[in-house]
Amino acid sequence: MPLIFDADQLGFALTLAEAVKDEEGYVNVSTPVPFIDLFFMGAGEAEAGWLLYISPDGAVAYYEFPIDRFYVGDVESANGVFKFGLAVQTTFILYGSLGILNYSLPVLLADGDGDGSYDTVYADLSTAYYLFLKALSDTGMISGEPDDSLFDLSFADEAPAYYGNEVLARDFNGDGVNDFSAGALAGWTFDWVGLLTGESVNLGWRLGFDYAGLVLPGLDPQGRWVSILYDTYAHGTSVATVIASRGNVEFNLGYMETSLRGVAPGATIAAGGSFLINVFVAQLFLSGFEPQDSPLNWVYTGEHQVDVINNSWGNSYIALRGFITGADDYATIEDYIVSASGTVIVHAMGNGGPGYGTATTPGAASLVISVGASTLFDYRPLYGYLPSPGGDVVSWSDRGPSQMGVAKPDVVNIGSFAWAGAPVLVGLGDGSWAYDLFGGTSEATPMTSGSVALVISAYQQASDPSPARAWSRLYSRARPGTRGQTPSHRALDRSTSTGL
Hints:
The protein is of the alpha+beta class. It contains 7 helices and 30 strands. It has helices spanning 125-138, 235-244, 279-286, 329-341, 441-462, 467-477, 494-497, and strands at 4-6, 12-14, 17-21, 26-29, 33-37, 42-46, 48-54, 60-66, 69-71, 81-92, 100-110, 120-123, 167-170, 180-185, 188-191, 201-202, 211-212, 214-217, 225-229, 251-252, 257-258, 271-273, 289-291, 298-300, 308-311, 344-348, 369-375, 411-416, 418-421, 435-438.
C-alpha cells in the first residue's frame, strides 16, 4: 500500500454508478451520477461532466461533455461490470497566477483479476487534457487549437493505475515528460466528515484544529469510492521536488538547462495531503500512530512509517488564541510525536520577520528542527544580473526566541530563492515547463529535510538514528552565522549538506 494519505479527502471521488460493458466495447452509465467535492464542501448529481477555467485576467471558459457512454475496448472487469464516477478537482494553477481550474474527471474502477475486489482505476485523461487545452486557447493563454482526436470519451487508450503504479498522468507530446496529471492513488483516506462511517468529531484544542474520523482504504475493494490525491496550489509538489527530485527531466530556465535534482534524490517520498484541516492527523499517521478502539485514541504502533516529516506551514496568530509559542497546543502535539515515535520533524519558522520573537507555531516547538531562510542568488541571470552566492539570513525570515525562551531557528537554509519543480498543470499543456522559482522558509525547510534524510540514511547504515542525533549532526555541520544573523542562527547550505 503506498504511503499516500489523503487527510482531508480533497481527492475523494464517489464511484457509485454501475457501468456494464456491451458487445460493442462501450460501457453505458445511468445518469445522473452522484459526485462529491470536498474542496468546496459540496455534493450533487451530474447529468454531464464539466470543465471550468478562469484565466488570470478573468476570462472564463466552460464546457460540458456527456457521461452516459464511454468506450473501453479491451479493458475488462469481472462479469463486464465496472464502477463509474466523477473525480472533481480544483487547482489554483501556480497559486492562481496561471488561472483557476475546476473540472470533473471521468474515472472507471475495474475488477481486473476477477477476485471480487475492485483494484484497478482508469481515468479519461485525454478528454480532460483536450478540454484544458481548449480552455487555455479560448482564453488566450496559449496559441493554437487542440487535436480533436483527444476528445474521445474513452478509457481504452489510458494506462491502468493500481497499487504499485499509482500515478494518473500522461505524456501527450512524446517528449518523455507528462503533460497532464490528475495525481496519484491514495493508499489511505481519512473520513473526517463522517461521509462513509458517520464518525466525525471536532477535537478542538485537544488536537489542533483536526477532526476525528476513521482511516479507510484509498481504493474501496467494493468499488464505492477512490481517492486520487492531487496538489491544489503547487506548494506541496515544489517541497517534494526540493527534497527528492530524481533529476530525470531537463528544464530550460531561460539562461541555462538543469535537471533540478533534489537534496536527497535517493529518498522515498510519502504524501500526507492536507489543506491544513487534518494536518496533525496526517503527521500522527505517518509517524506510526493508529486510532484504536475510538477515533479519538491515536496509539503509537512501535514503528514510524517515515523517518522525517517536512512541515512547510505555520500559524502566525497563536497569541490571539491565548497561548505562547512553544507551549501551545500545536507545538505540544509535534513535540509529543517526536518524543513518542522518534520521527524527526523539520518545521518552517515563517516569513514574518525581521523582529525577534516572530516565530510561528508549531515551528517554534522545542523538539522540532526549526528552519529559517537564507539567500542564494543563482537565479539572478534570469533578470539580467550576475549570480552571487548569498548565504545571509533574509530580512523576512522569522526569528526566535520562542516565548518559552528557546533559541530558534535551529538552522537556516536556502529560501531566497531557488528553482523547484511544480505540478504538471503549471506547464499549461507541456510538462517540460512545469517549474517555479520557489522561496520562503517553505523552501528552506525541504532543503533541510533532504539534509536530515542523508544524515538518517548514514546513521541507519552504522547505528540507530534518533532525532537528537540528526539534530546534533545537522547543527555541527552548519556554517557559523554571518551578516544578518544572531547567535540563534546557523546557516546550512547545499555545500555543507554534501558532507553530512
